Amino acid sequence: MPARVLVIDDNLDLASNLADILEGARELEVEVTCAPEGQSGVRAAAREGFDVAIVDVKLPDASGVDLIRPLRAASAEGEIILITGFATVDTAIAALRAGAFAFLLKSFRPEELISTVEQALAKVALKREREELERRYRALVEAADVLIVALDREGKVALMNPRAAVLADVSASAATGEPFVQRYIAADDRDKFTLAVTEVGRPKKASSPATLTAEVEAGILGKSGGVRRIRWHLSGVGGARGEPDLVYGIGLDVTERRALERRAADAEALSAMGSLALGLAHEVRNPLNAAVLQLHLLARGVDRLSDEKARSTMRARVTIIEGEIGRLERLLTEFLELARPRGIRHEPVDVSRLVEEVLEFQAEALNDHHVELKAEIASGCVANGDPEKLRQVVINLLVNALDAMPEEGILSVKVSSPQSIVVVEIGDSGPGIDPRILPEIFDPFFTTKEAGTGLGLSIVRKIVDQHGGRIELDSLPGRGTRVRVELPLASPAHVGKVMPIS
Fold first, then answer.
1. What are the pLDDT digits (tens) for 216-264?
2. I need a labelling partner for 110 at 20 to 30 A (CA). Which of 65, 182, 420, 480 fits?
3. Cα pseudo-dihedral 127, 130, 134, 136, rounded to 10
C-alpha cells in the first residue's frame, strides 16, 4: 500500500504543488492528503493516520511546532517535517527538540523534499519493523512453555516470563528489580548458580566465542515453599567492550524427570533386594524365633525369683528386650513387603466404607491423641483394587498423621470421586515437613522419626503405583501435611459387585 503523507499548510497552491511533487516522484509510492489549518490537520491525522506529516510552522490557528505533540498522539509511528520561510536558529532547535524529523527552509528544491520524505519513510519502516520484532519477541516469551528470565549486571530480574512467574509464585511485574538468586533460587543451589551467572557475565576475550554460555541445574522456590528442579541454560547478551548487559536464563522443568529417575533407581534397587530379602527372612527369623522362645523361658524363670526387687528389675529388662525383638520383626516384615514382587488383586472396592471402618478401628487412638476428626466421606466411591492393600495404605497414612500430632490436633479425612478417579485425602495439623526433604519423603529407609524404619511411605507409594494410581504430598512448616491418593474408578459394570471388606 502507498505510504500516507499529510500536508498541513494554509497556502493551498503550495500544498498542491507538494502533493504533485511527492506523488509524481519515482523514488516514492505515496498518497497525499492536504489540510489548510492545524485543527483540520489533526482531525485528518486522527481519522486516517499518516506516515509523514509536512507541516508549515506558521498556520492561521496554531504553530506547527505546537502541533507536533497532538500529531504524534494521533499517529505515534509517523514522522513530522516542518517547513517555514522565516526560520531562526531558536525555531529550528525548538522544532527538533519537540520531536520533528527535519526542518526545511522555503524555498527548498524538489529533490531536497523528496530525499527528506524518503529518509523519514525509511525511519518509519525501521520503527515498524522493530516494533513487529518486539511484538513477536514478547509473544514468544509470553507463550513459551519454558522458564525465561533476564538478569542485569547486579543480578536483579529485568524480565520474567509467565511460566517462570507461575513456578516462582509471583507476578512478572512484582519480580522485576528483585535479586533473582537470593529471592527465587533454592539455598543449596545459590552458590553454583551465582558462579554460572558470573561466568557468562564476565567480559569476553578477543579469542572467546561470540556468546558465553553455561548450563546448571538449580531449584526454583515455588508455591508453598516447595522446590522445582530446573535445568538452566545461561547466556550473556549485548553490552559494550564485550561485557554483557543482560544474562538470559532459559530453564526446563526437570522435576518429574528427576523423580522418575529416582523411582527407577529405587525400583532397580528393590528388585536386587528381592532375592536378598527371601534369604534374609530365613536367616533372621530363625534366630529371632529362638530368641523369643528363650525370652519366654527367661520370663518364667524371672517370675519364680523370690527377691521382689530383683524380679522387678529383671522383668523390666525382659520387657525392653521383647519390645526390641518386636521392632526387629516389624522391620523385617516391612522390608519383605517392600522388596517382595507380589501381585495384587483387582476387584471393586468400596473405598468409602473401607475408610469408615479404618476410622472406627482407630477411634481409640484418636481419643488418646486428643485429635479432632473432620471427615467428609462421599458414599459409593468404588475403586478397582486390592482391599487389603488399600486398607494398609489408609492405615499407614492415618498412623503417620497421628504421629505428627502426639498431643492434640485436627485430622481431616476426605473421600470423593471426581471424574474417573477415587480420591482419598488425609491431612493433619502437625508441624509440617521441611520443604528441603520433601523430594526424599517416599525414599526407602528415609525417616524423620527416632524409631521409624523409613519404609511406611515407600510401601504406600508402591501399593498406589501397583494400582495405577498417584500419590501427592503437600506440606507447609507449621501448617500441617496433606496426602492425596488417586485411584482408578471401578467400571460401571463392576460397581454392583463390590467385594466385602472385612
1. 999 888 765 678 888 999 988 765 555 567 888 988 888 878 877 777 7
2. 65
3. 120
